[in-house]
Amino acid sequence: MSANDQPSPGPAPSGGDAGSTPSWQWPESVWRGHTSAVTAGRPLLPSRWPQGARAAVALSFDSDHETIPLRDGETSPGRLAQGEYGARVGAGRVLRLLERYGAPATFFMPAVSALLHPDEARRYVGEGHEIGVHGWIHERNTLLAADDERTLIARAIETLTEITGSRPTGIRTPSWDFSDSTLQTILDLGFDYDSSLMADDEPYEVVAAGEPTGLVEIPVEWIRDDAPYFTMDRFNSVRPYTRPRDVLEIWKDEFDAAYRDGGVFQLTMHPHVIGHRSRLVILRELLDHIAAHGDVWFATHAQLAGIARDQLDRPTSPETSR
Ligand SMILES: [Zn+2]
């Protein structure tokens, strides 16, 4: 995800018969087709967590840095500096905080961001964190031809692998968006998991047009993303600004409920958003709150996906689907 980034409109109705027909005139086959293209299948919550933990905590940081303005062709130094802060200040603060809690995390990094800040990308891996794919330049995948989308993701895999020496196994699509081709591209490129969809609180198997794909989804949500609370548009009179301590309360409630459920607390942040002094303090207090429980499993998204994948080997029965 990204700051100042709204979800783009979904794909235009496909299938030929829909075309520019307004949605209220779609035949049932069209709206059923759209809602069944990519859906949630088997829940992949394990019956027990590693290390006897009661719940899992999966922290993620999307190290977009300068790629948001670059993606939009905004090249003014003023606009780029907001992203530069994420690399220069935010990422280091985040890494020091994670080290203090011994908490591994996943950093989803656009390839251009990794090329601009290769030492940072290597540091993520060197300090025991995971690096995941987050597009080439945070491109808007719903505007791309299928071949272009695939080429950019494949190039991003190669770039991150070359820079860090670690081949990514997971993807978070830029802006959490899916084009008509995204799922097939993810499957073809051999990813173990995706973390861009939000059909559940807990990991699940992605289903394509009714067919299980074997792809693990580590779901996200705007509720558990720093950007919607803290970012603003200076030329827009609307200031969707939330007090950091109010966000802390929301995230604590999310964690507490996940803990009671024995489930997953997944969080998405951005070094250039959460890395500011008045915001990092809430991450520290959140980690204090979580760590005080003792029996939580801090995992990278890849580790969590590995546990979830094990659930795929369980015998399938209709009752396990929902
Ligand atoms: Zn992003």
UniProtKB/TrEMBL annotation:
Sorted alphabetically, which InterPro entries does this protein's record hold?
A: Glyco_hydro/deAcase_b/a-brl, NODB_dom, PgdA-like
Q: Which Pfam families match?
A: Polysacc_deac_1
Start and end residues of each NodB homology domain: 75-299
Q: Where is this region: Disordered?
A: 1-27
Q: Which domain of life is it from?
A: Bacteria
| Cross-referenced CDD domains | CE4_HpPgdA_like
- Name of the molecule in the record: NodB homology domain-containing protein
Give the organism, scientific name. Answer: Streptomyces daqingensis
